[in-house]
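Progress report, Aim 2. The chain analyzed during this reporting quarter is listed below.
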Amino acid sequence: MRSVASLALAAVLIGGPAFGACNANLLSVEDWSARRLDDQNIEVRITVKSLAQKPIRMLSADFGFKDALGGHVAADTFDRDITIPASASVTATKNWPMTFERLLKLRHDEVVASTCVHGVVYEDGTKEEFK
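Predicted structure tokens for the chain:
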């Protein structure tokens, strides 16, 4: 019973499914920001650059934030129908509840942002999955 609880806690601490089998290099994080919208919501913006040689028309991918000690801060998924031209950058905007307000409290240099691509459909119809 203890080992099951330990495994569950470990999954939560490392970010859960956002850090499962994936390609962590297909999208590189160029920048991110977080700002308070009101007493209940924050806006998170993340700019990523596609390192793919072909335009992307569909994406199954997560992004996440860890603190300077490697602790999970927050994570979310990209819009599945995001389009990204080959070797170009796009910015995704998400509104989150104040549950993730720690992202507002940390200094920018104390946060590491990362991506995890599970699958992609390119404009030419080819598909790649990372398992």
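The longest strand covers residues 56-67. The radius of gyration is 16 Å. These observations will guide the mutagenesis work planned for the next reporting period.
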